[in-house]
Amino acid sequence: MTSKMDALATLQQLDDECTTWSNHHAHSCNLLASLLNIARQRNQTLIQLQLQSKKSSSPVSTTTATATHGSPAPKALLASSTLQALIHKQTLEIESVITQLLDSIQTFERVVLAMTTLERQVEAALQKVDPSTFLSAREDASSRLLDTAEISPLDLLDWVSRTRAMYARELLLKRTQVNPMTLTTALDHFDTLAKLQKSWGLQYHIDFGLEQEMVERIKTYRRVREFSTTRS
Question: Which terminus of the chain, N or C, has less C-beta within 10 A?
């Protein structure tokens, strides 16, 4: 971790984990949108089935209705058996989405675990670094140029630690937002499910400015390093 290439590789690995989280988070947002949509559709199907049941249990028959009003009673849009099959299909879809949402938590956990492992590796490497090298000046002009983009071991550890910490906090929040109990409750209250969808997407604990700064540092370091290499 004392070499420049190691510092760049560490930042790149950290950025890769951030990208993995971001991509999967976008997918999980789509899952929540699908869950809300399917839940609303199933609710409408249940209402229609209940209306069908009430009509079928009514003492007024179709023949009576025809004789009374002079025209046939309106036919139901869908038969009860069709509605029941549709409800079953929608229920299976809801269960599938919930399973995928619960699995998404495991993906987020793997990202945080990878960041934690990376943090420990930086800490271990830092223990082997001579503290005097943190303050040593370089005489070579290209080295001084490279230092403008280089990250000291202490700064590198700070960067990894802060990134890991904010994702760990977001993971804790997401565990409270998506679990079997909260999802089961939210299915009966669409307002709650809609609020969950909104809060899930906000990612309160993620500092995207920090991530952007890291991406820019990686780009800058690569450009400066390529320039210094061509001069050597």
Answer: C
Q: Is 114 helix (H, G, I), strand (E, B) or coil?
A: helix
Q: Which two tokens stand for residue 171?
A: 């993971």
Of the listed ranges 1-5, 23-27, 132-136, the least confidently predicted one is: 1-5
List Cα–Cα distances, 68 to 52, 55, 56, 61, 63, in angstroms.
Answer: 21, 16, 18, 10, 9
Cα–Cα distance for residue pair 50/47, rounded to 1 Å: 5
Q: Are 48 and 78 in contact (CB under 8 A)?
A: yes
Is residue 205 within 8 A of residue 170, CB to CB? The reply is yes
At residue 46, the pLDDT reads 92
Structure tokens at 197: 């969808």
Phi, psi of 6 (to 5 degrees): -65, -40
This prediction's pTM: 0.78
CA quadruple 181, 183, 188, 192: dihedral, nearest 10: 110
Mean pLDDT of the chain: 83
Rounded to whole angstroms, the Cα distance separating 116 from 104 reads 19
Closest CA to 28 of 94, 98, 91: 98
CB-based contact 101:35 (threshold 8 Å): yes
Q: Yes or no: say if 147 and 195 are a contact pair by the CB < 8 Å rule.
A: no
Q: How many CB atoms lie within 10 A of CB 88?
A: 11
Domain ranges in the chain are 4-231
d(CA 41, CA 103): 24
What one-letter code names the amino acid at 31? L
Which residues lie closer than 8 Å to 86 by C-beta, 6 or more apart? 45, 78
